[in-house]
Amino acid sequence: MPHPGRRRPRMRGRTCAVTAALALLATGCAGAGGTSFGGGDALNVLMVNNPQMVELQKLTAKHFTKETGIEVHFTVLPENDVRDKISQDFSNQAGQYDVATISNFELPFFAKNGWLHPLDDYAKADTAFDQEDILEPLRESLTAEDGKLYAQPFYGESSFLMYRKDVFEKQGLTMPEKPTWEQVAKLAEQTDGAERGMKGICLRGLPGWGEVIAPLTTVVNTMGGTWFTEDWEPRLTAPEFKKATKFYVDLVREHGELGAPQSGYAECLNNMTQGKTAMWYDATAGAGSLEAKGSPVKGKIGYVPAPVEQTKSSGWLYTWAWGLQKASKKSDDAWKFVSWASSKEYEELVGATSGWSNVPAGKRASTYANPDYRAEAGAFADVTERAISEADPKNPGTQPRPTAGIQFVGVPEFTDLGTRVAQEVSAAIAGRQSVDAALAASQKLAEKVAEEYR
């Protein structure tokens, strides 16, 4: 969704290239899961194997199938694998899968290529679903350039800063309500070593466009940088991009976790849970695990907005959402499943069976008004809702850019570009090269992508 009046990228008959690029879609999170597949009259759903999805798989037969008579067969795969399989099946319009989990990153490409079934009519007719309850940034991010809605969110997330309240208190430190990155760097220095084996902050250093690049790009945005200008001029060696990258690399090298070049979301979550870090900047989704029953740090964590410098906010925006394959012969049943899986009713079900900290939140305004949810998630609920509501994929920085996207550039080639740049940045975090060398190499990679769009 480019800015109004902004020149849109020219595709130059690159459908095959787009399909190939989409097959490379990959980020870093994965969990446990299995696969099953069925044909006939059953609905076939292909989804990522994160914990919330695995929970959905467990509840479907006993509740959705029992209520509707619609049998659902799931194929559940790690994130890298599921993106590849979804791209293959949807691009071929083979119709093997009726529903799949897609994100706000690839939705514009899928919609543009005619691979998805528009959902506007379904959402309008299904008044119980309450489309207006979906948080506006998510509604917008799942609406394509043609103005049509192509997916419904299962959960949404932004990013924020998590910190050990008890450690700060013992050290006589105060976390600002809206910290700047310079303040965070100072606090990381002051809390480094506050407890035995504790580092000041955990930041992703693991290569991957969905790992180190995600938080780093939010720092670039708020420090005045951008990957590309609105005319597709690469800016990875510009002073603002260099300043932000050097700041990030220096911070994690000086006061970050051990093994930072191999640390992603999962490793930082473990470090925070085990008391090995005083602060962690990452996805709002991490709070549920930190506050879960049995967590060693439950009740000890404070939550504040993503640190800023030149912008009012800087949190990212991401959602796993349900898309219907255009070639599916079971779109009516598919909508019934999507409507149930993304409903208020389903959130109530998870809250009652697994606890409210496990609810796939971040998508509905009503979730944050629910007293049961707030009783369990009160420590982070308001900050999370505000972060998602303030996220602006069209204007995430200080200057115009050619595509929508906060922690990514909204073109298919970014899966490869972002990952290759991540490898350069991770090498700088490891001390194998300078930030200047990393960005010089990255600029050349970005120039090749820019040639396709100028």
Order of helices and strands: HEHEHEHHHEEHHHHHEHEEHHHHHH
Radius of gyration: 21 Å
| Coarse shape | globular
Query: Mean pLDDT, rounded to whole units?
Result: 91
Biggest pleated-sheet summary = 5 strands, mixed
Task: Please tally the helical runs, counting DSSP H or I stretches of 4 or more residues.
Answer: 18
Description:
- With 454 residues, this protein is an alpha/beta fold.
- It contains 18 helices and eight strands.
- Strands 2-1-3-8-4 form a five-stranded mixed β-sheet. It has a three-stranded antiparallel β-sheet with strand order 6-5-7.
- Strand 1, helix 2 and strand 2 form a beta-alpha-beta unit.
- Helix 9 crosses helix 10 and helix 17 packs antiparallel against helix 18.
